[in-house]
Amino acid sequence: MGKNKDEKKAKGGKRGAGSAGDLTPADAFRSPSPPVALSAISTERGPIGPADKEEAAEALLDLGVELDDLQSRLFAQGTAGDRRRVLVILQGMDTSGKDGVINHVMGLMSPAGLSLAAFKKPTAEELAHDFLWRIEKKLPEAGLIGVFNRSQYEDVLVVRVHNLVPSEVWSARYEAINAFEKALVDDGVTVVKCFLHISPEAQAERLTARLDDPERVWKYNPGDVDERGFWAEYQTAYAALLEKCSTDVAPWYIIPSDRKWYRNWAIGALLAQTLRELDPQYPPPSFDLEAERVRLKEKLLL
Amino acid sequence: MGKNKDEKKAKGGKRGAGSAGDLTPADAFRSPSPPVALSAISTERGPIGPADKEEAAEALLDLGVELDDLQSRLFAQGTAGDRRRVLVILQGMDTSGKDGVINHVMGLMSPAGLSLAAFKKPTAEELAHDFLWRIEKKLPEAGLIGVFNRSQYEDVLVVRVHNLVPSEVWSARYEAINAFEKALVDDGVTVVKCFLHISPEAQAERLTARLDDPERVWKYNPGDVDERGFWAEYQTAYAALLEKCSTDVAPWYIIPSDRKWYRNWAIGALLAQTLRELDPQYPPPSFDLEAERVRLKEKLLL
Predict the structure, then answer these.
(1) Residue-range domain boundaries for chain B
(2) CB of A76 less than 8 A from some CB of B
(3) pLDDT tens across A224-264, in order?
(4) Adjacency order of strands within the sheet including B114-118
(5) Tag placement on chain B: N or C end, fewer CB within 10 Å?
(6) Is this model's pTM higher than 0.90 or not?
(7) Residues 205-244, chain B: which have Cβ within 8 Å of A?
(8) Hey, how many other C-beta atoms are within 10 angstroms of the C-beta on A144?
(9) Given 1.20.1440.230, 3.40.50.300, 3.30.300.30, 3.40.5.10, which CATH number is that of A39-301?
């Protein structure tokens, strides 16, 4: 498989990646060097990717087959002592599509190989610990693909925007997060941090659509509209974390998310590239295969 | 949807259920009254279900669409304070297909609405507590579908077969489990206990196939062959738990599992019936919809 995989990697996925030469998804979506001017970065599409919804659906189907295979290998090698694992972090404004990515991209793989965690408003117990305490407890084990719906970054987002702690406290957290992630990487975690970048217009549409759909109105939280009032402050806070925490060992990716189909393809392609580069392998037997064949034959006769 | 759903329920699913009149999957697979003679129960098929692999694949695809919708409703109502949740327990001999059910049936739903736990050999910490301690910690929250790959029943299976504790200890556990499950049911958990029933011949085939496939040999554990030597003892232990722990509030189902396609269909159909009967509903807004429409319009203008 090696050859074939390298070819795919160079093209950044099998489909719809031809428009910008040999850019991989990681190249295409990597957060730029500081300063990060979010308003200058497209919320619609990056330099590569499918042209329309139909092409995206087809590409995602192919990616799903590949993701499922790669995940299965990662899981298998995890059972044989390989410590490698993946942590996908999803961050973005309300309605940016964190749940949608979990349903439509992570849902392409087996639930047995996933480790999901959603970080909501911290509980009293969580607040009585340092901000990374609740994060540590939800890290994926060897062989798994962890997915965080929100993360440690909430502590430099909502906390910063609403001054929930003094500025000297939240401002020290960027470095703490970098050190935390460095330690994870050193221990075999590949960290894939995705900022789902949407425009205020797309959010307005989605909030309105939720109100008008009886099957989705439960997702509508009047508080989201209040938070929308802090759009500029949130964009500033996002730019700051992209500038300070997009490190070489754990880079941030900016995923244009105004179109759900583009967003899903982009994250699927980025995750597939990540797994391809890990190149997980089904482990060889830990026992003497020939001897076991003989033993099994004897035992089965009983 | 109510009418339509009742019709489907009565037929035990849309497809392939005609052969035994109006038997539902729950009727068709429910463990019989004691004594349970496992050797007299088919490992190939029950009284209802698809006739072949192709029909099963089509039926499972349909079930997947329905399961995904029902799971989404269950999740939604869970966010609005409804405590109901589901716990699927998968038990069976090695190679009976517990992992396969998770991949191919549970994988039809969104990972966000699932809560998976696999119970392996207990750790030293787990052994230092009562046998239900580790189980409690993995129970699904409101709105979720929990799936246990092995469960509290290991403590009356491997523990009984290998005399890991005195017989007066394991023999007291049936009643403890019934009381535990009764409390769960009283708290809003629907417990769906599936025994994946395979023949020794099917196991022999699967063990041999694993040895011969480089992509699956990692799943082969020489210890499984040793355990196979206790086949009769395990069947006795399974019969005992089916007799003692198939209660009205938390019945056991015996799933013929020699054919993977039949097994997957049966569990998918049983879970769909369970969810249909729960009849989960998207919750109405918890706020004044009209007032919020006006407020949103104003806010979006900013």
Answers:
(1) 39-301
(2) yes
(3) 999 999 999 999 999 999 999 999 999 999 999 999 999 99
(4) B114-118, B145-149, B85-92, B189-197, B252-256
(5) C
(6) yes
(7) 207-208, 211, 214-220, 222, 225, 228-229
(8) 21
(9) 3.40.50.300
